Amino acid sequence: MVPPVLALLCLLTAGAAISGTAGSLVFGASLVVFIFPGFWLARFRFAGWERLLVGTCLGYLVTSFVASGLYRLQILAVPSVVAGVLMLSLVLAPAWRGAVSKSPECGHRGWLVASMLIPPLLVLIPFLKVGAETLEGVAYRAYFSADLMTHLSVVGELQKGAFPPENPFYAGEPLGYYWLFFLFPSLVGKWIGNQEALLLTYLFGGLVFAGLGYAVARRLVSESGRAFLAVLFLLVATSFEGLTIVARSMWLGEPLGIFRTMNVDAFSRWVLELTSIDGLHRSLLYTPQHLFSYSLLLILVLLVLRGEPRGVVSSVIAGGLLGGMAGTSIVTAMLAGPWLVIVRVSRGGDPRAMARDLAVVGTVSIACLAWFFYLGFFGDAGAALTLRRPQLLEIPALIIFECGPLVMLSVASWKSRT
Description:
Blueprint: H1 2-35, H2 38-42, H3 48-72, H4 78-96, H5 109-116, H6 118-128, E1 132-134, E2 137-139, H7 142-160, H8 183-192, H9 194-220, H10 224-236, H11 241-252, H12 267-270, H13 280-286, H14 288-305, H15 312-328, H16 330-346, H17 351-375, H18 394-417
Antiparallel strand pairs: 1-2
Helix pairs in contact: 1-3, 1-5, 1-6, 1-8, 1-9, 3-4, 3-9, 5-9, 5-10, 6-9, 7-8, 8-9, 9-10, 9-13, 9-14, 13-14, 14-15, 14-16, 15-16, 15-17
């Protein structure tokens, strides 16, 4: 249990720098209450620190579902959420008491701690400079503030309590956005400030993702040190876009000062005019809802590596994970859903059991999706979908620029195994 405790201390320490000691403690205490029901769910297939990491993520998801129902009834408030958490825990505790997993922990705890320290090291300094007072006024990075201001607006609308929430940019229109993830900061923001609550929630999401990333990597490789390097590459060196700017400077004589004025994470989109894949730098800094969707995907991968889904209970969890992905970043669910079906079918077994498992997964995930449509998450986004002819060089270019370091890491890992 040491790594999650250290992660919480890291979150509180970083939070003290962002919102002060009192604000950090309020955020930490509120977060523990919010995620508590997830620890009962995680008892089914996880043990040790994996159980705590998975439980943290599942708890945030299920309590957000409860909060979304309270918001729909226009009774979302701290007392009603606490009551919902207690009722949910009372229901889950007896049902899962006999389902404690005794599976061994996977990986060295020290490397887990090192992996979870990566996100704070990457984002803390930028977060400390958000909204800094300068002679020219309040300082925000242009490409950062676009998402942060959107999230501040979303939180502000949720705090009004009216359903449906109004689009703050188009008066009179409902807000079509992934606001499920932002219900927690909308509650805590009333106490410590909305910007501080959002930045601490961003940081919390990064810690959980890094821990789950290490758990998956450790299941796939034989050494804890290699699992840490995989997480390091995943978070620090996702793409070669920054390196491309250095190369252009060397070959074309462009000044390296461009690093101070250009979003290097979007270089392939803006300069090379390719279809950009969102890197994890953006998710760590200012798209936490997408990062949370990826965290749910990592839990699903852990289940699949353990032979899941098999049986009704694990299929319900898998369907809930897909539904949660749809409510935080629907593209993740669109990719993970077919993959899960292919994996389950390829494993074979009793056709009736397979059909039952897939039917449960599909029913739960579709029910979640229906709830999100009812809440108005997606708005008119579907009308904006357009198709174009593919560019033949686009796929290899995306692999090289957007995922180059990860491809190299995968090839190195494969060669070491062979």
